[in-house]
Amino acid sequence: MVDSELLVDGPAVILVEPQLGENIGTAARAMANFGLRDLRIVNPRDGWPNEHARRAASRADHVFDRIRLFQTVEEAVADLGYLVATTARSRELAKTVRGPASAAGIMRGHMVGGVRAGILFGRERIGLTNEEISLADEIVTLPIDPQFASLNIAQAVLILAYEWRRSGLESEESGLRFTTPNDSRPATKQELIGLFEHLEGALDAVTFFRPAEKRPVVVQTLRAMLQKAQFTEADIRTLRGVVAALENRPTRPRKRADGTETTSREAED
Amino acid sequence: MVDSELLVDGPAVILVEPQLGENIGTAARAMANFGLRDLRIVNPRDGWPNEHARRAASRADHVFDRIRLFQTVEEAVADLGYLVATTARSRELAKTVRGPASAAGIMRGHMVGGVRAGILFGRERIGLTNEEISLADEIVTLPIDPQFASLNIAQAVLILAYEWRRSGLESEESGLRFTTPNDSRPATKQELIGLFEHLEGALDAVTFFRPAEKRPVVVQTLRAMLQKAQFTEADIRTLRGVVAALENRPTRPRKRADGTETTSREAED
């Protein structure tokens, strides 16, 4: 179900001088949700370890306990072969600017080829300095509404982590199972036609089709409409139960006036 | 860079019984970042208005101040023509399961065609009930790591909002149009629920649901089954005619024994 490339290690996430411990913990959780594990922090304002960070990380211990602390951005990215820097708005820098999906695809290509990749995230208010950005190969910018740009670090990490994971799925839906309840198979056309004829018979009995000349058109409309649902075999049985109940008024325990006719129709299928 | 179709209104976000005010506010902020504005909340645990929510919404006033409160999910989605339900894991429900990008593309297609779309988010711990999910046309599931699934509501809202915005930036997706034959628009949830209740009333009258304890399960099965067809408004009218004809046996020219009851039910809608 999941593409084998999901087994590739994910990119490193590097938080530069995060101010709030809570954001570090929430970033760890965001990463864990999408299978990333390598979190690095550079010179956090409130020192390290940080209890606010641990609490916000909640159950993401396998990410949190591996967090590595660095004094400078240069040290934090030293082992990486491809680095993207996240910036909120485009700057006057001679670098390719990508969206998150495109950046995730490039990173996966590198990691599959054995090159370690990483994503650089800036400080809460002022982001990354131009000097820090210059360490990156490319820039990734999120398509936020310019009139309301208020994404925090953990949210930006979440979206990049999501795109990383998505880039490893053959198609977006390949990680998802398509199930029908009770393993019911799609109805055969014969079963579907059985339902149609049952319903149309019940409608004939109440003179639904008036004037009679219009019957073929209305029948065709009804059939097209119901066909859209792609009923399963179990669905057909349920719906025939519904039609039978409605045409069997009054309720089943009592004898019906026209019972014979209906029984013979039901017996046909 | 920005496609003109970004000007299309975004889908509604519906939070069902959110427990923490903070999540409501953070969801509003997440939406604002990606240009969504229509936030609806159903029966929030701590009542409304909620100061925690307002504080968490920060500067997203233009979303927060327009939040609408509803008592039931049915009322909250009544005006929508296409609804996706977010669920954490696949369930035994006969609905198409999509990833966020695919769902966003479908929603954009609908909204460009003038059909209002919405996304349903469940409660913090227990998500959505099967009955609530049955109101949706399709299911959207995020590709989270099954070994660490700990996304909160606001994070799920963030990713769907991000994908909504992204769907407006990519030319290959913005070209999609969803049209229905005969210019009939998709039925609103209100119209659909009207059909369901009409049919269930008719089935009650013939004691279809036996034993009575099983009624909720059978009702849900029926609704899920019929929902698959994505009926148009014209379809709903036709089907209500079918149900009315069948419950009106014997044929319309003759007086019915229980005519009063049926008339009153029909008058309700």
From TrEMBL, chains A, B:
Name the top EC class.
Answer: transferase
This entry carries the following GO cellular component terms, namely:
cytosol
- Ranges where the tRNA/rRNA methyltransferase SpoU type domain occurs: 12-162
Chief subcellular location: cytoplasm
The answer, when asked if Methyltransferase is one of the entry's keywords, is yes
SUPFAM superfamilies linked = alpha/beta knot (SSF75217)
Query: At the top level of its lineage, which domain of life is listed?
Result: Bacteria
Basic and acidic residues bias: where?
256-269
Q: Which GO terms describe its molecular function?
A: RNA binding; tRNA (cytidine(32)/uridine(32)-2'-O)-methyltransferase activity
Q: Give its localization.
A: Cytoplasm
Alphabetically list the UniProt keywords: Cytoplasm, Methyltransferase, S-adenosyl-L-methionine, Transferase, tRNA processing
Give the enzyme's EC designation: 2.1.1.200
Gene3D superfamilies for the chain: 1.10.8.590, 3.40.1280.10
Query: Could you state one GO biological process linked to this protein?
Result: tRNA nucleoside ribose methylation
InterPro entries, per the entry: Alpha/beta_knot_MTases, RNA_MeTrfase_TrmJ/LasT, SpoU_MeTrfase, tRNA_m1G_MTases_N
Quote the catalytic activity from the record.
cytidine(32) in tRNA + S-adenosyl-L-methionine = 2'-O-methylcytidine(32) in tRNA + S-adenosyl-L-homocysteine + H(+); uridine(32) in tRNA + S-adenosyl-L-methionine = 2'-O-methyluridine(32) in tRNA + S-adenosyl-L-homocysteine + H(+)
Q: Where is this region: Disordered?
A: 247-269
Transmembrane regions: none
- What is its quaternary makeup? Homodimer.
The family this protein is said to belong to: Belongs to the class IV-like SAM-binding methyltransferase superfamily. RNA methyltransferase TrmH family.
Instruction: Indicate what this protein is called per its UniProt record.
Output: tRNA (cytidine/uridine-2'-O-)-methyltransferase TrmJ
Species assigned in the record: Kaistia nematophila
